[in-house]
Write a structure and sequence with these properties.
Strand content: over 45%
Helix content: under 10%
Radius of gyration: 23 Å
Strand order of the largest sheet: 19-20-21-22-1-33-34-37
Oligomer: single chain
Structural class: mainly beta
Amino acid sequence: MKRSVILLVLMLMANLLYSQEWCIKLPFDDCDAFFFHCDASADYNYSLGSVTEVHDNKSKPLVLCVNNKGEYKYRILDFDNVVVTINAALGLGDGNLFVNAYCNEPESESLKNKLWLAIINPNLEILHQNLIDVDDDYMSFGPEADLVMNEKAEIILATQITKDNYLINPIYDYAFYKFDNQCNMIKNVILENTSYNLNINDLTIVPESESYAIFGKGMYPSGTPTVFYLDDNLNYMYSTLIDDPNNYPNYISPEFMDVHWLDNDSYLMSAMTPYTHGYNEWYPLLLKMDKEMNIIDSVRFERVDTTDYVSQYRSLIYHNSNTIYVSTFWQHIKMHNMYPNTSSVFLLDENLDVLGEVFFDYDKYIALTSIQHTADDGCIVVGTYNENNRMCAIMWKLSREDFLDGTNIKEEMISVNTKIFPNPVSDNLNIYIDKINDIKVCIGIFDVKGRIVLENDTFMSNNEMSIDVSSLKSGMYFCRIKTEEKYVFTDTFIKE
């Protein structure tokens, strides 16, 4: 089943974000500030990133801890004779945070030959720390990493490692580590990558098993997005392609994806795809998939008020079967200039039904870089914005009620079930849309380059209509259905 959440061109101002519990802004004089890594631990939420001095481009790690009331502390970590860049963080459940960073001496900026591990408390004090050298046969760690904690309270780290001296298009292998709760290393395993590509987007524990799943790109010769599995000893087991050829062949982008396992055979995954009719260059989607990579259900977050990217970064938070958050934003950038944009955070249930939305509309460009859960079933949305040519960090605390109290949600968006059949098709293409009936619609057929090849005004009766596509050449096409109310629905088909 494929469903779309379509945002209208005209947004009602009553649904703007005025109801957040608190908002924190961190502008720094002569510095750019970013948060890219976030996690929760007991009653505290942590955000981690960097501050970069504009005059010399030097960066230092930035850590912020906030409680549910919005009371916060931040700390800029200063290290002697070493450059530290945080690339993963994990809440330990006791209020403390495990942090991973890769680092180097100032005179060797390109080679990151050490890992810094630390446990930080809510007062931002470093309780434990450790420094790990790169393995003897390798030169540098890579920038991507992720962390997870198993039932034995062991902390698992997955990161990149390379033998290349110069980090220009390096070939990465995998490095896996186990640590205890005082940053002592228990185990280290190197896995040679069998692909020219390697991305680590989410490291997860498979429920009811002593195994780990790594989502991203790697271990497959073509560089196609994959998930591969490790046993509890961090030994490689097998890999599977993420893409389901019957749904999104080679078009799911796993960058910045989030994954939540529902059980040991199915999971939710936030991702992006350019597999559109050409209206949005890219758009986010939330997929429910099984372990064999078959798509069970999906929701597509499309917009008709822009042809630009609609993006998601680390956008999925799962509280329970009735509280799932997904964040999206309009990537309104032209010729390297950032323009005011809009963003949305959706509340869904496990059936992928949309229960509510909080809509952000500011006079600045804001990129939502992550979302994290809170102890009261709410969420914290983290982003960055431009203020007087400085990048500033910002975050909002939203309660679940903020989404349910939003007015006129149904006037702004509609969630529908669509079906196109037969697919592949040779002559008449039938289209079913469950909530559209007895109205005039315009059907447009686009080729893979976004060029319109067929267009027809027709009347939808009993939720169905059809269009003759026998004149089309064989190949993949996009179908767009537009109503007088400006809703736009899209789907794809193959012409035999």
